[in-house]
Amino acid sequence: MQFEVVIGLEVHAQLNTKTKIFCSCPTSFGDEPNTNVCEVCLGLPGALPVLNKESVKKSIAFGTAINSKINQKSIFNRKNYFYPDLPKGYQISQFEIPIVEAGEIFIDFEDGSKKRIGVTRAHLEEDAGKNIHHGNVSHVDLNRAGTPLLEIVSEPDMRSAEEAVLYLKKLHAILRYLDISDANMQEGSFRCDANVSIRPKGDSKLYTRAEIKNLNSFKFIQKAIEYEVERQVEAWEDGVYEKEVVQETRLY
Ligand code: ADP
Ligand code: MG
Ligand code: ZN
Predict the structure, then answer these.
(1) Quick one: which atom of ligand 1 is closest to the CA of 208?
(2) C-alpha dihedral (179, 182, 185, 186), degrees to nearest 10
(3) pTM above 0.70?
(4) Which among 75, 119, 145, 237 could bridge 97 via Cys, Cβ 3.0 to 4.6 Å?
């Protein structure tokens, strides 16, 4: 059987604003833990968020660059989850009406041809802090909590690991060119999750996807996708697809 690979990517890009998304703490990287914090980003009772105008401008610049619809009215929502690096117990994110919707990015192949990859949406949200583990104790550094993130979600339009990497490199270049993100993979200001599925060639329905998280280099992304595709194809061929390919998050 011939298979087609289906890939959709979610990228979290830290916006390079001087201050955090809902308070005036600096967003600088590598400072002494818990020095760039205040009542807002620590989630202390009664503190109220004030939206950073620059983060909105930078998101609009991105949306404009990818021919998207910029929503004149856009809504923030609470995404509740419990984890030590999230002091409020919820992340402020966007769900129903993101700031940027329905854009496109064109990837360039070596032979000069192009392909359009749809961008479903890009929404603003706050980053969490960091848990740092030393042996059997864990520390929490909240310097990063409240750093503005633009989450950029693609349509499942990519058909190979190569196309995924071309898309990411193009997206990376757009963010850098607009000077809206450092997009530094080592420092975590450009983080990618890859959603991967396969389907019999000719079929147009979407099959079960696995999501691969924590990918921090183009090379790893390529390898992780290739590995995941091989795993799914083998599962199909061995008759254990239903059992082996389930919607789950896998770590590279
Ligand atoms: P979630 O919020 O649970 O991550 P979304 O519906 O927002 O789910 O989808 C996330 C990403 O997964 C998008 O980039 C989308 O294109 C991609 N995706 C959805 N279904 C599939 C599939 N069957 N195969 C590959 N990618 C998919
Ligand atoms: Mg996801
Ligand atoms: Zn703060």
Answers:
(1) 23
(2) 160
(3) yes
(4) 75
